[in-house]
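Batch queue: ligand-bound targets. Current item pairs a single chain with pyridoxal-5'-phosphate. No template structures supplied; prediction is de novo from sequence plus SMILES. Inputs echoed for audit trail.
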Amino acid sequence: MNYVYSSIMDYLRPSPVAEMLKMASDPELLSFAGGMPDATLFPVEHLRESFDLSLREHGAKALQYSVAEGLPSLRQKICDRMLRAGIDCEIENVLLTQGGTQGIDLSAAIFLDRGDTILCENPTYMGAMGPFDVRDVNYVSVDMDEEGMRMDALEQRLREHPEAKLIYVIPDFQNPTGVTMTVERRRRIVELAREYDVLILEDNPYRELRFDHDELPAIKSFDTEGRVIFLGTFSKTLCPGMRLGWVVAEKEVINNMTTLRAATDMQCSSIAMYAADFFLEHADFDGHIRTVRDAYAMKKERMIEVMQATFPQDVSFTNPDGGIFLWLTFPQKVDAGLMLRELVIPKARAAYMPGEAFYCQAPHRNTCRLNYSGRTLEEIERGISAMGEVFRQVF
Ligand SMILES: Cc1ncc(COP(=O)(O)O)c(C=O)c1O
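Prediction returned. Tokens below.
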């Protein structure tokens, strides 16, 4: 059969790192390339009980079709939790989605036409580029520093691109850099979005994984006119396999997203929604998040200690206050992808994710991302010090 595919398929570029990821998936290899939560921390017993009790209490209803917006009682619990981020919303402002990924896709689908301009952090989350790529958007990148997206750079880009429609931003423990945007910049980005009349898509999967201070107010907390669409997910705090996330936005936006999702995947899994609702009602979710946070804080600390002890001086790295990733910058001349293939995988038997995958415009090839959540303390020590040994031979 000679299949004639739709034009969307032209925009789905095979990822330049797909081959490297395949190499990194060798079980013999200590890979820090992915973004897996620590599965040993999944609250398996409590979730088993939650599924069980959902079926006992709700019976066939938990297995029946539900409403496209998602279970009202779970949406109400999300509203209650959103108050901690400074977001005051009602259940009509909340749509449950299949993870944060569907929130990105629905936002792109209802707002972006082919050729529309969007602004992204430089670097940005490569998983978001799939939904944006298939809409053939025009990417404009905005430089970051240790306080997140730079507001002077954003203003300049907005001036250069008055046609820009949306800013995509990850303010807390950004994927890939681990950097957090300051409160001042959160306030400012909303002011700039108003001044230049653009939407903000605030993608915030890691907000509750802050190691030692209180969580910062979300960008959406400064929004008074419905300009910010907030995306949340249970993937990193509970588990990714239930595929539960949410969008918080104006009712009109939620209604449009709901109409579209009803036409594509109808709804989230009923039983998964009931079980998550049960879990939030009866288990100690905050206590569970504290356990996850403490474990990740310890892993990050260990990774930083080993890097400080074994990496050459001219490799710099971020030291995140939360989340699951940190970011390395090698000397300018280094191609991190090449070094991974030719030296790090064969000699250190370890892997990182080359940074080039995270740039929507000109990639900085001398960068890479490391994940610490998915490995044990012992594996972190072994894999990172082996990488350090290779780096010391190269630089
Ligand atoms: C920045 C960011 N957004 C969204 C997601 C999507 O997560 P999920 O669809 O599993 O909720 C991730 C997952 O790694 C992420 O890092």
